[in-house]
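In response to the reviewer comment on reproducibility (Comment 2.3), we provide here a single inverse folding case reported in full, input and output, so that an independent group could reproduce the run without further information from us. The structure tokens appear first.
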């Protein structure tokens, strides 16, 4: 069954909440398996750790709750918590009656964990909603004024624990950005048969973008030239890859060459050094990278292996995007240090 925010429901056919009521009444839908054996009898409702059985009425309440949630409106359980807070602030009998009504509006099969307490379940709330002198659930303890106060103390301790956790988290996460991050930047693989545009913009982040790089005494026409040349075990292959006419050709030649035996262990470090060289040796390219701010960089495409790119099926490691973000942070750090003391980076 699929539920939509506008109240539409697809369950074999398109309907709404009123139509779902009719389908349940006619027996076209069943909320439980009619062939399933019945659950064992519980001798005590108070002692039971099992929720109420799922009924058509409870199912309808849950579906209505789902529609509320999709519309960013409070669910029955959230409204119950609002009533708890109101009663804490003003523990008067009318507010307890409102709290009882709010709790009873929660689907019966979901009431067992409204408080989110796996040990006590909803027993504190059930005690509070039972009149003094009456037995909770009919077979539980007889409620006293002290028990009502204990429940209020229980809620108070919970509030203190939540506040303490929030305070501690505020300290531990003090360096979290106060503003939301930029939307993810997707770097797409693009082919320019007639050559790169005059203003390539974000395409300068691609590894095949022509940018002469000097690393360890060798010059490479792009990051791809440097990466695949350095991967080759044979000196002749390294030269052929380094002198390839384009990054794509360098990639193809490098993919066919025999790689260094330690390449799996060093390739990330090599790529990181190539990116540092590219962006530190070309300030105009560094400016483009820094301009992406704090956006996550998703490096996509088809030519690179999933190890380097972002793949939606979960195989992608997006190491290129991650290394670009690392390089960006290093560039920003250099700008920061240079602004504080120009001699630091000399």
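Designed residues, in position order:
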């Amino acid at each position: 069954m699929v539920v939509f925010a506008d109240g539409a429901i697809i369950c074999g056919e398109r309907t709404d909440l009123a139509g779902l009521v009719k389908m349940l009444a006619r027996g076209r839908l069943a909320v439980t398996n009619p062939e399933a054996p019945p659950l064992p009898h519980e001798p005590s409702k108070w002692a039971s750790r099992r929720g109420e059985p799922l009924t058509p009425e409870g199912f309808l309440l849950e579906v209505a709750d789902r529609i509320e949630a999709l519309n960013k409106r409070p669910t029955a359980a959230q409204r119950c918590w609002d009533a708890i807070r109101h009663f804490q602030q003003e523990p008067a009998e009318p507010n307890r009656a409102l709290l009882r009504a709010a709790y009873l509006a929660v689907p019966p099969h979901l009431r067992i964990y409204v408080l989110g307490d796996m040990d006590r379940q909803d027993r504190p709330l059930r005690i509070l909603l039972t009149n003094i002198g009456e037995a909770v659930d009919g077979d539980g303890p007889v409620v006293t004024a002290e028990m009502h106060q204990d429940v209020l103390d229980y809620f108070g301790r919970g509030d203190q624990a939540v506040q303490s956790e929030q305070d501690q988290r505020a300290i531990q996460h003090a360096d979290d950005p106060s503003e939301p991050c930029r939307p993810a930047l997707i770097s797409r693989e693009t082919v320019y048969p007639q050559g790169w545009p005059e203003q390539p913009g974000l395409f300068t982040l691609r590894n095949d973008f022509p940018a002469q790089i000097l690393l360890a005494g060798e010059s490479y026409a792009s990051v791809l030239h440097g990466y695949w040349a350095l991967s080759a075990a044979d000196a002749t292959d390294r030269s052929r890859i380094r002198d390839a006419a384009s990054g794509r050709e360098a990639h193809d030649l490098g993919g066919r060459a025999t790689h260094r035996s330690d390449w799996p262990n060093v390739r990330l470090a090599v790529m990181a050094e190539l990116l540092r060289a590219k962006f530190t040796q070309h300030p105009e390219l560094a400016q483009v990278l820094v301009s992406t701010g704090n956006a996550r960089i998703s490096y996509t495409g088809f030519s690179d292996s999933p190890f380097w790119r972002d793949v939606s099926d979960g195989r992608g490691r997006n190491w290129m995007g991650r290394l670009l973000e690392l390089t960006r942070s290093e560039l920003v750090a250099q700008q920061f240090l240079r602004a504080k003391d120009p001699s630091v980076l000399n």
